[in-house]
């Protein structure tokens, strides 16, 4: 369960961004949105959903991009660029794209995350010197790095490396660690690499491969961050696939039927040796046995839904956190509303799954659907061009700026009560074009 993500000097977020899924105080109603995880004798609460609003180019996607970039850097364990250029989030692979482009000198980039996994409260973060924006050949360096478990610091890295409460992770330590603890600590302190994260290298090898595996598994499989969902292509693999075979999944087709696909089935066509499969439309009756690539027959919205739905299933079955850029693009609001309601359903969302997405659709600005602390905003200053992030609950409930539970959130948003909206008028551009044409 994600509790909090922080970053600073990430693209338009020059100052610290704190994206919190911890319930704000004094928020009443919609208690089904509040998840609870037990860690030892303590209970931690998290929100099961959040929706992010703001005008184009305000920085909404940068929040999701920062999460994706952090995840990518941690999983590969270093500050070196990744040769894989196929991912839609270029900043995750080419780190010179991360720093805010207004800085005249190098300023640190910071990331941190707090989450609950396997009954542990895990807090991990690092600060890095990546140089200035587009400075490709800069000698990058990890400036600081900290890992805490259940509120106790395990290690902290600044000018050097310090260990504090290793007893907290005793059951996760490598075999015979206690007998070799002094040697391992001395070796770790002497072998820090400026470009490598200690968590994923020395700590993993010499201290606790089990704990790092737990953290890596959560980041890799349960922290599902989809940057630019319009470019997402779900790749399915099947064990022991039969060549030229079509695999039709019952759950997928039941969902597709609810979505509106009822003239044909959907399946996965396996053609090669790798087991990878392509989504296809399967026809019966007079065209029995015919399967063609879905892109040739299905609408863009259908393909988007089919690619997205297995991730929703995965999140709900495994207690994952699904974060999606433009989740609602090309999908009907009624379908989205139902998915949101499922995440809010205590009887279905029994594993504490979470759904976070950004949108331009005002239909979700609804007091009966979202709590005030689940509605987030992003706006960008016209002078500095820096982005800022805040929640509807930050306005409080009293005074002129206060927001009460039963107010019309949508109406208030469009009359600029909350900010994160921009008045757009293209008319002067066309008037100017027409006047110049008339002059000619």
UniProtKB/TrEMBL annotation:
InterPro entries: ATPase_AAA_core (IPR003959), P-loop_NTPase (IPR027417). GO terms for molecular function: ATP binding; ATP hydrolysis activity. It comes from the Bacteria. Keywords: ATP-binding, Nucleotide-binding. SUPFAM superfamilies: P-loop containing nucleoside triphosphate hydrolases. Residues 50-365 form the ATPase AAA-type core domain. Pfam families: AAA_21. This is ATP-binding protein. It comes from Diplocloster agilis.
């Amino acid at each position: 369960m994600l509790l909090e993500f922080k970053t600073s000097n990430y693209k338009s977020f020059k100052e610290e961004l704190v994206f919190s899924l911890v319930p704000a105080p004094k928020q009443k109603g919609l208690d089904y949105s509040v998840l609870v995880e037990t860690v030892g004798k303590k209970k931690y609460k998290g929100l099961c959903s959040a929706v992010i609003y703001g005008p184009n180019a305000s920085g909404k996607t940068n929040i999701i991009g920062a999460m994706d970039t952090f995840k990518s850097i941690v999983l590969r364990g270093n500050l070196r660029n990744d040769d894989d250029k196929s991912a839609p989030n270029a900043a995750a692979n080419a780190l010179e794209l991360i720093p805010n482009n207004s800085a005249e000198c190098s300023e640190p980039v910071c990331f941190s995350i707090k989450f609950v996994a396997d009954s542990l409260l895990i807090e991990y973060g690092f600060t890095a010197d990546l140089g200035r924006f587009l400075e490709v050949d800069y000698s990058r360096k990890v400036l600081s790095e900290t890992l805490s478990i259940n509120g106790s610091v395990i290690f902290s890295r600044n000018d050097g490396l310090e260990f504090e409460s290793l007893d907290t992770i005793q059951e996760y330590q490598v075999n015979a660690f206690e007998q070799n603890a002094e040697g391992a600590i001395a070796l770790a302190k002497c072998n820090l690499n400026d470009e490598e994260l200690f968590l994923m290298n020395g700590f993993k090898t010499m201290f606790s491969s089990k704990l790092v595996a737990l953290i890596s598994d959560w980041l890799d499989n349960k922290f599902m961050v989809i940057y630019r969902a319009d470019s997402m292509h779900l790749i399915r693999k099947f064990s022991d696939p039969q060549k030229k075979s079509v695999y039709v999944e019952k759950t997928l087709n039941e969902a597709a039927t609810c979505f509106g696909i009822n003239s044909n089935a959907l399946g996965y066509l396996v053609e090669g040796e790798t087991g990878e499969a392509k989504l296809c439309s399967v026809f019966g009756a007079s065209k029995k046995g015919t399967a063609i690539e879905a892109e040739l027959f299905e609408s863009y919205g259908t393909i988007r839904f089919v690619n997205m739905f297995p991730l929703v299933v995965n999140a709900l079955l495994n207690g994952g956190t699904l974060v999606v850029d433009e989740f609602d693009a090309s999908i009907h609001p009624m379908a989205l509303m139902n998915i949101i309601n499922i995440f809010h359903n205590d009887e279905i969302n029994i594993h504490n799954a979470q759904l976070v997405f950004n949108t331009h659709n005002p239909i979700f600005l609804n007091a009966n659907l979202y709590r005030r602390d689940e509605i987030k905003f992003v706006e960008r200053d016209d002078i500095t061009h820096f982005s800022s992030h805040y929640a509807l609950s930050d306005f409080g409930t009293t005074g002129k700026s206060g927001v009460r539970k039963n107010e019309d959130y949508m109406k208030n948003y469009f009359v600029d009560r909350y900010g994160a909206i921009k008045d757009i008028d293209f008319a002067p551009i066309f008037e100017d074009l027409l006047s110049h044409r008339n002059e000619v």
